[in-house]
Amino acid sequence: MAVRRSLFLPVLALLAACQPTYSFEPEQVASGPGGMVGNGDPITPGTFPGGDDILPAARDVPPPADSRPPDCGADCVAYCNGAGLQNPVNRGLCRSLWGVGLPNRPIQQAEACRRLFVDMVGRVPTADEAEATCSGGWGATVKKLMEGDEFILVQQRRAADRFLYSNEVTSLQAIYDMDRLVEKLYRGKVPYDLFAAVVSAHPVLTRRYADPGDKAEALFTHFLGRPPFEHERADMARLYKLWQSGYYDHPQLGMRLPDAFIRFRCLDDAGNVDETARGECASVLWGYNELIFTPDLRAARDPNLRELTLWSGLLSPEEWSKLQTPGRVLARDLAFWERAVDDVLVQYLGYDLSAKVPEVREELVRWLLENDGDIRSVHYAVATSAAYLQSAEGASPSAYRWTYGPLKQVDAEVWIDSMARNTGYELPGCDHRISQPEDLLESGSIAAYRVLETSRWKIDEEGEVDERYTELARTLGGCPENVTGGRFRVVSILTTATQLSFVQSLCNPSLDPETKGAAVEKLLPEGMSPSRAVNADVAEEIAAHQYRVLLGRSPDAAERAEAREAGTECARTLCSAEEFARPYCFVLLSSAERVFY
Fold it and tell me: Rounded to whole angstroms, how far apart are CA atoms 433 and 411?
């Protein structure tokens, strides 16, 4: 049979265009719908007002009883309207705080700066860092921290916890793509509603859940904060009927990667749309939204299903856009935007302020929409608000939760990274994108090894993954594998013993020559000899240095007095600076101040 050249060449070109491109480089692992959005300029300049509000005094009226919500009358409303507050959190809070006669706790510079570093940078600062960064207004400080790469990494790690990244469940390339999408969100290049739309059809979500109804429920939980009602679940599941979990063999990585595929539903035997069945592929609760794909040259027969499927890696931008209908549907709901601001409030405050003071949620939703869905605006507003910056120390005259500052437990990675950095102790790390690094090593391919080598994982001298960091972090609830469960926080005998053991190895208070702890030079003031004899003055100097380096602040008068007393006792045994510094390091690093902030 003769084949006409005019027909053969276009078909060949189409086949070539549909084949995946395997020019695989570790720096370009990401592949997926996240790369198709947010490739232009930021949606806003990233400069937001309200960072340096002048906080009003509490109105001179009797404060409300703690047993019921505050009642803001006409005079209270007028007082708050005239307060000149620009920050939306402060505006929403005024009618439950200053306007009803309640004061906020004072803002302590060192405490607030430490809290900002932990939440935005992911570690405890030294006092020098804190003083250099938080020397200006709070608005400028927060803006500076948000522009750093460490802020992006903190948000990427939170997204990994939220969506349960696992390279045993989802393709490594899809996880890297999702990580890239999160970066674009926090660089201000993707509005939050577009982010949700891309996530709603992203393999990180669709590959994790097998049942269409489970996919719909996961979407509702992530972006509305609740499971769907049964009729919502059934209707939304029709838009997820196309998705199928499968595997594809990556030629360079030498691995069989789990990924998402598209099935051709609601078609007749000839591959055309079945008019009697097309309603099964359409959602009708939020308008008529139909999702039907017909096979073309990209489709391949699945030997298990015995029908044609399409690998999601071959989808065009237009096809991805169609599949993202569920996310766009949810973004029309006011509850979607309320959930977005609630998530940020809980992230920074550690409690649900919106449920207690609904005016804060109302103000923040309006603020987010005014800033074109730039989620950075909400982070900025919350991090510069009185509710966040105020002190948590001391007793509050009121039981209302918003009258004193946040008090939270640090994540395992924050606890470990801060100690290692502040003491100069070298440790490997873990990479939230690759929860099972052993899979890459076991593949035996050079490409997989290069991906692992350029990640945050470290390879030891024997060519194995260095798991010292991971073993510690996972005992404390961090660095999760995300196969069946995720991150956890707990204070228990086991975790306390684990923490004390690590601090013991770090500070080496017994001066065990077999223990390779932190360099003594990090624990002593610059120029002080480890063999110098200790007296009260030397002890105070060592204590001041360690407080600033290890706790990120200067000691107060009582702490200085305690150090001098300890130095006097130490001098009676003719102890050296190192013999004083290492136990003192253990005392500071094992304190609750390193666990709670």
Answer: 17
Question: CA dist 547 to 108, 126, 422, 500, 554, Å?
Answer: 17, 9, 11, 19, 6
Residue pair 158/11 in contact by the 8 Å Cβ criterion: no
Structure tokens at 487: 């991150």
Contacts of 95 (CB under 8 A, 6+ apart): 70, 72, 76, 77, 80, 359
93 touches 402 (CB < 8 A): yes
For residue 3, is pLDDT > 50?
A: no
Query: Is the Cβ–Cβ distance between 341 and 357 less than 8 Å?
Result: no
Mean pLDDT of all residues in the chain? 93
DSSP secondary structure letters along 445-473: -HHHHHHHHTSS--B-TTSSB--HHHHHH
475 contacts: CB under 8 Å, gap ≥ 6: 494, 495, 498
In 306-315, which positions are buried (b, 16+ CB within 10 angstroms) versus exposed (e)? Answer: eebbbbbbbb
Rounded CA-CA distance 562/319 in Å is 68
Beta bridge partners of 289: 283
Q: What is the pTM of this model?
A: 0.92
At residue 232, does pLDDT exceed 60? Answer: yes
Cross-strand bridge partners of residue 244: 261
Phi, psi at 172, each rounded to 5° = -60, -40
- Specify the amino acid at residue 265: R
Residue 287: helix, strand or coil by DSSP? strand
CB atoms within 10 A of CB 455: 19
DSSP classification of residue 548: I
Q: Which two tokens stand for residue 431?
A: 């990479």
- Count of helix runs (H) and strand runs (E) in the chain: 28, 6
Neighbour count for residue 8 (Cβ, 10 Å)? 10
How far apart CA 11 and CA 9 sit, in angstroms, is 5
Cα separation, 374 vs 46, in Å, equals 8
CB 309 within 8 A of CB 295: no
Distances (CA, A) of 469 to 161, 435, 496, 503: 18, 13, 17, 13
Question: Which token pair is 526?
Answer: 């610059």
Are 146 and 380 contacting, i.e. CB atoms less than 8 angstroms apart?
yes
Give the pair of three-digit tokens for residue 235: 């209707």
Q: How much of the chain, in percent, has pLDDT values that exceed 90?
A: 87
Angle (nearest 5°) at CA 469 between 466 and 474: 120
N residues, the chain: 597
Coil vs helix vs strand at 151: helix
Give the rounded distance of the alpha carbon of 482 from its chain centre: 15
Name the strand (E) or helix (H) holding 315.
none
The region that residue 38 occupies, defined by phi over 0 for left and psi between -120 and 50 for alpha, beta otherwise, is left
pLDDT of residue 177: 97
Among residues 592, 588, 595, the alpha carbon closest in space to that of 562 is found at: 588
Residues forming beta bridges with residue 521, ordered by sequence position? none
Q: Is residue 498 a contact partner of residue 531, using CB atoms and an 8 Å limit? A: no
